[in-house]
Design goal:
This protein is mainly alpha-helical. Helix content is 69%, strand content 1%. The protein is built from 18 helices and 2 strands. Strand 1 and strand 2 form a beta hairpin. The termini are close together.
Length: 349
């Protein structure tokens, strides 16, 4: 599947307008017109500007999490606009994590362009990510302008901060795993439930809690968890076997960084001692060459790592579909959830 579901394009113009308004509220944006500011760096990361601050329009990402927030609200009350500040907040948090992840992982390319830290250096990139996190809280407070009750706004802030902390715990584990070879598939799935799924769960919950009572939103959380894990395991497949022209990331980069993605963890857990030792001999080298990557891919083929990852993705896809029927949403909106799950588990980018 190579195209985003239609609902993404339906919400996109509203989301971009909301996020641009939040970023343009920054004081430096208003007083520093003749030099690149932290807000121009944000716009660059989001695909709205080049490195000189000139306006352009490139690939600004899928807006997956923000779209889920708007869909959750829309599918409960047939109105998504009231959730726009919350959707903008979740998108800012997601992008704060991406900017910081690029620094931590040493990634130089994102969405086919140099990363923020690669252009402006790590100290300023840290500032960019941290400012996005701060702006996300200010975005939530704008919910009061859509006549959302103060108690609901507190619920949103609680869900956002708990999920953000969970996401950072997952990032901690991911970095910790890089220097270990004793990681199991169970360990890995627990990690991505935090790092990736937490913010997807959050996106659905905050859209729903604007309308529903807090104790009614658990199906959104469960659905988001299963979909989030399936999303990440599909991402792991693309990270090894995907087309870098479609994914926007250099193929083999995850292996060169010794990232403990699902195929790697599966190889480390393999019962064939000879193949496991062969894999470890290559994977624990100080530097992994292109020839080494070719050898790793041969080992993956022998142990059927790709098939295992595809089956894992399929399992969580099915769990998400089972949970989907429990969502308290209007029947005519349910198709959008199915389209999104199908896309995330079968996408090529």
């Amino acid at each position: 599947m190579s195209e985003l579901p239609e609902i993404f394009e339906t919400y996109r113009p509203f989301l971009e307008k909301e996020i641009k308004a939040i970023i343009s509220d920054g004081e430096l944006f208003k007083i520093s017109k003749n030099k690149t500011t932290i807000y121009d760096m944000m716009a660059y990361h989001l695909g709205w500007a080049n490195e000189n601050g000139d306006k352009i329009q490139l690939n600004s990402g899928k807006y997956l999490r923000a779209t889920l927030t708007l869909l959750a609200c829309d599918s409960v009350c047939n109105e998504f606009r009231i959730a726009l500040p919350a959707a903008a907040a979740i998108e800012l948090i997601h992008n704060f994590s991406l900017v910081h992840d690029d620094i931590q992982d040493g990634d130089e390319i994102r969405r086919h362009r140099p990363t923020v830290w690669k252009i402006w250096g790590k100290p300023q990139a840290i500032n960019v990510g941290s400012a996005m996190k701060a702006l996300s809280t200010l975005a939530v407070l704008k919910l009061s302008q859509t006549k959302i009750a103060p108690g609901k706004i507190i619920d949103v802030l609680k869900i956002l901060d708990e999920s953000c902390l969970k996401m950072i715990e997952g990032q901690y584990l991911d970095i910790d795993f890089e220097n270990r070879t004793d990681i199991t598939v169970k360990n890995y799935l627990e990690m991505i439930e935090r790092k990736t799924a937490a913010l997807i769960e959050c996106s659905l919950q905050i859209g729903a809690v604007l309308i529903l009572d807090y104790d009614k939103i658990k199906p959104f959380k469960n659905f988001g968890k299963y979909m989030g894990i399936a999303f990440q395991t599909r991402d792991d497949i693309l990270g090894i076997w995907g087309n870098d022209k479609k994914t926007g990331k250099p193929s083999g980069n995850d292996l060169k960084r010794k990232k403990k993605s699902l195929p790697v963890v599966y190889a480390l857990s393999n019962n064939d001692r000879n193949l496991k030792r062969e894999f470890l001999d290559i994977f624990t080298k100080d530097n992994i060459s292109d020839d080494d990557i070719y050898k790793i891919l041969e080992i993956f083929e022998k142990i059927k790592a790709k098939q295992f990852c595809e089956q894992t993705t399929e399992n969580y896809y099915n769990l998400a579909l089972k949970e989907m029927i429990n969502l308290p949403v209007k029947a005519n909106k349910l198709k959008h959830y199915r389209e999104i799950v199908d896309f995330l588990t079968k996408r090529e980018f």
